């Protein structure tokens, strides 16, 4: 009996996936053997989490502004150099069109106007109008390449600033759990792992920008409202 052809095919498990699964199981087993302590999160306050996220959003805004200044310093002159020739060509074409229109208005005789049109000014204007779209397409392509480079610089700059702030002491997990959880009671290895994860998480969240943090705050507020409603109903 053959299976229907429209059923999704199950992909075979690859070697790297098996290695990663075994490594994860090894980490879990090692944590159990090292007697890692489970943290009690029952006393964590939603209000304090909201205040912490608001502070993180402010810091993320500062990082965004710093990245914007870095990009303007690094790529501002290059962007001007790319756009300036196109703007100059457009202005020159516009000036030639105005000159041709002015000269045509000054001439009364239709024969003189035809002579002016045949003299070559029209050819220069038409050539400029033909070359302008090609120059605009080339400028657009160069700006797109510059935009990709700016995105990579923005990511690296934001991550660097986020890591620097995390290493200097601004860490989200510590800020959220330290007031209610005694982190000093953790085994040394677990405390080091916790700090490493906290630094990585904080760096990524800050580098992701303030919009993502605002979405977290919105979900946290909605969760708090839903929880209070359920408690009152019960």
UniProtKB/TrEMBL annotation:
Highest taxon, organism lineage: Bacteria
Membrane-traversing stretches: 12-32, 152-173, 193-213
Keywords, comma-separated and alphabetical: Membrane, Transmembrane, Transmembrane helix
Protein name as annotated: Uncharacterized protein
Taxonomic path: Bacteria, Pseudomonadati, Pseudomonadota, Alphaproteobacteria, Rhodobacterales
């Amino acid at each position: 009996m053959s299976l229907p052809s429209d059923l999704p095919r199950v992909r075979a498990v690859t070697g790297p996936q098996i290695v990663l699964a075994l490594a994860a199981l090894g980490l879990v087993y090692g944590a159990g053997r090292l007697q890692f302590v489970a943290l009690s999160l029952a006393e964590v306050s939603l209000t304090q989490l909201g205040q912490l996220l608001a502070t993180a959003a402010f810091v993320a805004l500062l990082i965004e502004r710093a990245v914007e200044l870095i990009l303007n310093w690094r790529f501002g002159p290059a962007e001007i150099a790319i756009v300036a020739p196109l703007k100059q060509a457009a202005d020159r074409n516009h000036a030639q069109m105005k000159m041709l229109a002015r000269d045509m208005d000054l001439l009364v005789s239709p024969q003189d106007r035809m002579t002016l049109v045949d003299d070559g000014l029209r050819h220069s204007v038409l050539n400029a109008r033909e070359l302008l779209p090609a120059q605009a397409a080339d400028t657009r392509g160069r700006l797109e390449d510059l935009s990709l480079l700016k995105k990579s610089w923005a990511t690296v700059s934001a991550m660097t600033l986020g890591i620097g702030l995390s290493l200097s002491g601004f860490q989200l997990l510590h800020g959220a759990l330290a007031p209610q959880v005694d982190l000093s009671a953790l085994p040394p290895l677990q405390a080091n792992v916790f700090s490493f994860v906290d630094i990585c998480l904080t760096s990524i969240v800050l580098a992701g920008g303030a919009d993502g943090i605002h979405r977290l705050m919105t979900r946290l507020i909605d969760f708090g409202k839903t929880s209070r409603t359920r408690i009152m109903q019960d």
